[in-house]
Structure formats: C-alpha cells, structure tokens
Amino acid sequence: MEFSYAYQESVIAKQKNIALIAHDNKKEEIIEWCLKNAEILKHHFLFGTGTTARMIAERTQLPIRGFNSGPLGGDQQIGARIVDGKIDIVIFFSDPLTAQPHDPDVKALLRIAQVFDIPIANNKATADFIITSKFMNSEYRHRLIDFERSVEERAEQLEEEVQKDELREDD
C-alpha cells in the first residue's frame, strides 16, 4: 500500500534569516560575496558558523550572529534552527575538492534544508540567483510536510494492514 505525505502551508517572511557558511578555502569568496551584496544583506538577519561569522563581521561590518565552527557542531546548530523554523536560506560556499572531517555534519545540514524546503546555495552562482530572486524581499509561501499528521496517518495505515493480515490468518 502506498503512502503519501500530508502537507501544511508555511510562509518565509519578507525579512529573511540567512545562514552564511564557508569552508576554509572559500572564506575569502563568501566575504567578497557579502561585500558585493551588503546593501541587500543588511535588511535581513544573518547567522554563521565560527570563523566565517567572525570574518564576515570584521570585514563587512554586517551584523551576524555566530555559532560554533562547523567541525565543532556549528553546521548542526544551523540545522537545528532550520527545524525550528528560524533559518530561511542557507548560503554555503563549500569546497568540493578538499576532504572535510565533518562531512557527515555537512550532509545532514543539506538533507535537513531539503526536508524543510529551504533554499540552499552551495556556490556563488546559486547564491547570486537566490539573492536576486523576486522572493528575496517579499513573503514566500510554500508547502512543508506536516510530519505529525503524516506519522499519525502512516501509523493508522499500518494498523489497518496488520488487522487485515490477522483476518487473513484467521480464515
């Protein structure tokens, strides 16, 4: 028997909560990107992991709240904020050519952004598309999986299947 998810509408507000993350070899690139887009970014709430947040604050004067560095749980802190509905966009300049010791954390962050339908940029080109989107300075309505309702409906469906199996065994 197939199962389909239940959905609920969600709204990303006009003023966005943006996470800014960069691997070591990409920190200069994200700082340059922030400087280029400072006029837009200053109208939103910025968050970042460890050194990236500190460097952005020092070099751009943009206000940014810092979390732990990525290898010390910063990516997971950003992921937890996504789950809580407190991060709307992730800009993550990742280094695809260098192995990262916290790669499982990075993959978990990418997955949670996908599950919660959060725009995520993994490079400058995608970040440019996001920041110039017509939705950047307006509300954005989208559908999210209603996990609580979906779990309840799936549990009911499984219970019905068990009852049917038990009836067949009695025959």
Automatic annotation (TrEMBL):
The protein's Enzyme Commission number: 4.2.3.3
Keywords: Lyase
Catalytic-site annotation from UniProt: D75
CC annotations in GO: cytosol
GO-annotated biological processes: methylglyoxal biosynthetic process
Alphabetized InterPro entries for the sequence: Methylgl_synth, Methylglyoxal_synth_AS, MGS-like_dom, MGS-like_dom_sf
Annotated coiled-coil segments of the chain: none
Family to which the UniProt record says this protein belongs: Belongs to the methylglyoxal synthase family.
Name by which UniProt lists this protein: Methylglyoxal synthase
Name of the encoding gene: mgsA
